[in-house]
């Protein structure tokens, strides 16, 4: 009997497919439990995604400068990007039950301590099943775990490393199944798309012959990722950058067909969205949130006087006392938007552009405050995300390990680039550039939340680099 048990263990641990099936089984349990015990999580961001979803499916959405549930214009005004709202609409379309149960809506409001207004409730009751969104996002958690397992296995060749890494980082991580997977946010879909993109890129890296259709596919993924979460705008050119690096190293031959395949899909996707915003709102950009995010570098520290515009200063001070829900006053700038629209006599998208200009002037005149905000954002970005309520005792154990996972791989590749493969160098360069872009543009907003989507990539770098160094040390020691 013992021999049979040992044989089964060896069979499982030596078979990638069997081990992957075991992982899926193990990580399903907490998600099944969360499905029955938890309700979807709604925040102002959630309502702004729902508003755009309604617009994209042709609902009549009236103009309102500030939707109190969304902290953004009700008719979007270019505030959000389209992929996640389209994802929501797909779920709503295929959901067996078209609306959200009243008991779930009541629990959401009680848990979050706010009231959903009648306009939103009408859609949620009749057409938008939030429970279906939660279930599908739990499914994305399973899918992300599987893709991370395959990536770790491909990059290390070690089943144990792949198994442990996938379980710890996503599968059994409460920040996922008890946190972000419940939230009507872009993060879960973003990570899934990112891991699929990395997996497809690595398959191309290992291919003897690169097919043109594969290049179209990875560039399409990069464009979709950028329009899911603009934090990953550089993902649109990641496949092209990877290809150029291979051309420079002369491992593949230059071809204009490849250039078109790598640049045209993201150009059509992102360019098309910019043109749509320009024609519809007079805003030629991806998102009108940028101006507000830039100003948060200063509002987060109550530095209202850095803005030269008196109207802006007065609006911020006026709303400070009326904003108990603002975290360190950073979101004051959002609540002041209706006043700015009235006082400046400008539509919301133009207000956003003007705020960009006000923020740039403040950065030029007060670089010390801006740099202080950047440093704080970087520190917050690299701190491990706290576990949800109920899992807090485990966070003490996780903190040091989580910190290592976030910074270890980056540090090793940056300080010893030649010890690692060109593919790892490319991923590191992409990570550094994305982090810098994130903290510069949105570091005053929520750098901790922005770090969530980067965690699997940063942890992947750490697992692969440390494993690679350990293997090399073992080989050197063996040869001695």
TrEMBL record:
Bilayer-crossing regions: 160-178, 184-202, 214-242, 254-274, 281-300, 391-415, 427-445, 457-476
Residues forming coiled coils: none
Keyword field: Membrane, Transmembrane, Transmembrane helix
UniProt keyword Repressor present: no
Keyword Transmembrane helix part of the UniProt annotation: yes
Protein name: Glycosyltransferase RgtA/B/C/D-like domain-containing protein
Source taxonomy: Bacteria, Thermotogati, Thermotogota, Thermotogae, Thermotogales
């Amino acid at each position: 009997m013992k021999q049979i048990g040992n044989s089964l263990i060896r069979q499982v641990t030596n078979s990638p497919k069997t081990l992957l099936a075991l992982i899926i089984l193990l990580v399903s349990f907490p998600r099944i439990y969360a499905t029955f015990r938890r309700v979807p999580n709604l925040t102002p961001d959630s309502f702004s995604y729902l508003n755009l979803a309604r617009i994209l499916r042709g609902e009549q959405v009236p103009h309102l400068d500030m939707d109190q549930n969304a902290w953004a214009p009700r008719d979007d005004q270019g505030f959000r990007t389209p992929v996640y709202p389209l994802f929501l609409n797909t779920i709503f379309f295929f959901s067996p039950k078209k609306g959200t149960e009243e008991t779930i809506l009541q629990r959401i409001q009680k848990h979050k301590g706010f009231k959903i207004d009648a306009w939103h409730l009408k859609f949620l009751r009749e057409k938008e099943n939030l429970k279906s969104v939660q279930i599908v996002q739990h499914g994305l958690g399973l899918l992300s775990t599987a893709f991370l397992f395959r990536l770790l296995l491909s990059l290390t060749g070690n089943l144990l490393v792949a198994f442990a890494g996938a379980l710890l980082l996503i599968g059994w991580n409460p920040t996922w199944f008890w946190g972000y997977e419940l939230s009507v946010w872009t993060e879960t879909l973003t990570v899934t798309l990112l891991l699929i993109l990395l997996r497809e890129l690595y398959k191309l890296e290992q291919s003897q012959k690169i097919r043109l259709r594969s290049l179209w596919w990875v560039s399409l993924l990069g464009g979709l990722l950028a329009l899911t979460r603009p934090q990953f705008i550089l993902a649109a050119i990641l496949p092209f950058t990877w290809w150029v690096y291979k051309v420079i190293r002369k491992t593949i031959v230059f071809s204009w067909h490849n250039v078109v395949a790598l640049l045209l899909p993201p150009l059509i996707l992102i360019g098309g969205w910019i043109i749509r915003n320009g024609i519809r709102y007079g805003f030629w950009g991806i998102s009108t949130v940028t101006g507000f995010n830039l100003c948060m570098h200063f509002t987060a520290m109550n530095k209202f006087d850095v803005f030269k515009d008196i109207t802006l200063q007065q609006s911020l001070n006026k709303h400070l006392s009326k904003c108990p829900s603002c975290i360190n006053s950073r979101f004051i700038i959002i609540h002041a938007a209706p006043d700015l629209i009235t006082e400046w006599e400008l539509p919301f998208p133009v207000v956003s552009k003007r705020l960009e200009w006000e923020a740039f002037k403040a950065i030029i005149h007060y670089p010390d405050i801006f740099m202080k905000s950047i440093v704080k954002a970087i520190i917050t970005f690299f701190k491990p995300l706290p576990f949800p309520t109920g899992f807090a005792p485990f966070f003490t154990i996780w903190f040091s390990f989580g910190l290592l996972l976030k910074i270890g791989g980056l540090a090793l590749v940056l300080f010893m680039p030649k010890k690692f493969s060109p593919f790892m160098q490319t991923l590191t360069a992409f990570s550094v550039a994305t982090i810098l872009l994130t903290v510069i543009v949105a570091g005053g907003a929520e750098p901790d939340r922005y770090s969530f989507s980067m965690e699997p990539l940063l942890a992947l770098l750490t697992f692969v680099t440390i494993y690679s160094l350990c293997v090399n040390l073992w080989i050197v020691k063996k040869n001695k």
